[in-house]
Design brief:
The chain is an alpha/beta fold. About 40% of the residues lie in helices and about 15% in strands. The chain has helices at about 5-15, 70-80, 90-105, 115-130, 175-180, 190-200, 225-230, 255-260, 285-290, 310-325, 325-350, 375, 380-395, 415-435; strands spanning about 35-40, 45, 50-55, 110, 135-140, 185, 205-210, 240-245, 265-270, 280-285, 355-360, 360-365, 395-400, 405-410. Bound molecules: pyridoxal-5'-phosphate and ligand LHPZP3FS. The ligand N[C@H](C=O)CCC(=O)O binds near residues 24, 142, 156 and 405. GO terms for molecular function: glutamate-1-semialdehyde 2,1-aminomutase activity; pyridoxal phosphate binding; transaminase activity.
């Protein structure tokens, strides 16, 4: 039964563009009608019609502990009794900043209210520090919706029906070509292409911004050679911005930077750092961060930046991860078993898939592997993925509603959810196989 969700969707479309407040929620790339979620607990979502779904989105990453984790709730509740917003400094900002700097090695951090604000501000900072205007990003990487980053972008932009056709053009209408022209684009995991671009244009670049592990073209894992060329850019005075909005505090306590031994100059965060409330942040050495106002000339502000409830949710989440380090092992083990089970079930049904997994992030591409680049990812059979997605949803499993997204496992997933998921997957593979033969 999905009547209430359908009714809500119809009503929503009258008053909200497309009925949603962020495009990937609308199921456009898989078809059908999105579920409206009434509540969530642990590893489950309950939709408006009362259907219980195993949640592999985790609010697109933040819910690493599962929904309504007791310590996170207690932390928010304690902040709530003291007032919801002050527009003045509060102790929780200091506490979270101390935790983030300790975990990540960055000396200073500035809190904002979203991942988009974090990457936008990090780029402004990099341009100010270097005195250069151009930046480089990678095809299919997504860094939020600031104008200069909506160029060959991943996530919802990869399945956007109204996508502009011209290459190197903005991925969204409304972005001035002149501004988008300051964003150069290279292919992720193409070390030769990157090296050539650095030879040609390196001395004009303020920064290279990158997803250290891509989640927004589906999961793509960087090769050692690609990382080496990225690091070599520092010799040309280019600042490396690791966009850890998705990977931060997920792939290890110190994020992908720690896990992969990266040496970024600036890191951006979002998602987990806010424990499900709106928080983003960027951090770097004191020397770089002191360019930011009021210390330095780079203006960046926010009415709700460092909001006490949001800080409390972030503190509660990071404290829980710090005090229970075994969580990382547990969610990785679960995701590895999920990977093995999916590969087996697909093989048994005679369907070609390639599973990319690192830690608790995973994408199953409906194509033969390996999938290392954007071009590999877009070979996927998105029609087959859409069928499989709906078969899973009908069996109570809420997978990410796009081929080009990661799923996220939380500490609340358990043996029961794994068994249910793998049974659903096996049966969904067999169903779509028989549909394709019929
Ligand atoms: C890697 C990455 N950077 C930036 C963003 C933007 O974050 P937000 O949606 O909080 O603006 C996202 C997700 O949306 C992301 O996955
Ligand atoms: N892939 C996006 C961010 O990680 C999904 C979240 C969104 O844009 O709504």
């Amino acid at each position: 039964m999905t009547e209430k969700s359908r009714w809500l969707y119809e009503t929503a479309q009258r008053v909200i563009p497309g009925g949603v407040n962020s495009p990937v929620r609308a199921f456009k790339s898989v078809g059908g009608s999105p579920r409206f979620i009434q509540s969530a607990f642990g590893a489950y979502l309950i939709d408006a019609d009362g259907n219980r779904l195993i949640d592999y989105i985790g609010s697109w990453g933040p819910m690493i502990l599962g929904h309504q984790h007791s310590h996170v709730l207690a932390s928010i509740q304690s902040a709530l009794t003291e007032g919801v917003s002050f527009g003045a400094p509060n102790a929780r900002e200091v506490e979270l900043a101390m935790m983030v700097t300790k975990l990540t090695g960055m000396e200073k951090v500035r809190f904002v209210s979203s991942g988009t604000e974090a990457t936008m501000s990090a780029l402004r900072l990099a341009r100010a520090v270097t005195g250069r205007d151009y930046i480089l990003k990678f095809r299919g990487n997504y860094h939020g919706h600031a104008d200069g980053l909506l160029v060959e972008a991943g996530s919802g932009l990869m399945t956007n029906e109204q996508k502009l056709q011209a290459r190197s053009a903005p991925s969204s209408a409304g972005v001035p070509q002149a501004y988008a022209g300051l964003t150069l684009v290279a292919d992720y995991n193409d070390p030769e292409g990157l090296a050539q671009l650095l030879r040609d244009r390196g001395n004009t670049l303020a920064a290279i911004i990158f997803e250290p592990v891509v989640g927004n073209a589906g999961v793509l894992i960087p090769t050692a050679e690609f990382i080496d060329v990225l690091h070599s850019a520092k010799e040309q005075g280019i600042l490396l911005i690791a966009d850890e909005v998705m990977t931060g505090f997920r792939l290890s306590p110190g994020g992908a930077t720690e896990r992969l031994g990266l040496k970024p100059d600036i890191i951006t965060w979002g998602k987990i750092i806010g424990g499900g409330l709106p928080v983003g942040a960027y951090g770097a050495s004191a020397e770089i961060m002191d360019f930011v106002s009021p210390m330095g000339p780079v203006y960046q502000a926010g009415t709700l930046s460092g909001n006490p409830l949001a800080m409390a949710a972030g503190i509660g989440t990071l404290q829980t991860l710090r005090d229970n380090p075994e969580i990382y092992e547990k969610i990785e083990d679960y995701t590895e078993r999920l990977e093995q089970g999916l590969l087996l079930a697909a093989a048994q049904a005679g369907i070609s898939v390639c599973v990319n997994r690192i830690g608790s992030m995973l994408t199953m591409f409906f194509t033969e592997g390996p999938v290392q680049t954007y071009q590999d990812a877009v070979r996927s059979d998105t029609r087959l993925f859409a069928q499989w997605f709906h078969e899973m949803l009908n069996r109570g499993v809420y997978w990410a509603p796009s081929q080009f997204e990661s799923i996220f496992v939380s500490a609340a997933h358990n043996e029961r959810t794994l068994e249910h998921t793998l049974q659903a997957a096996a049966s969904a593979f067999l169903t779509i196989k028989s549909q394709s033969q019929g």
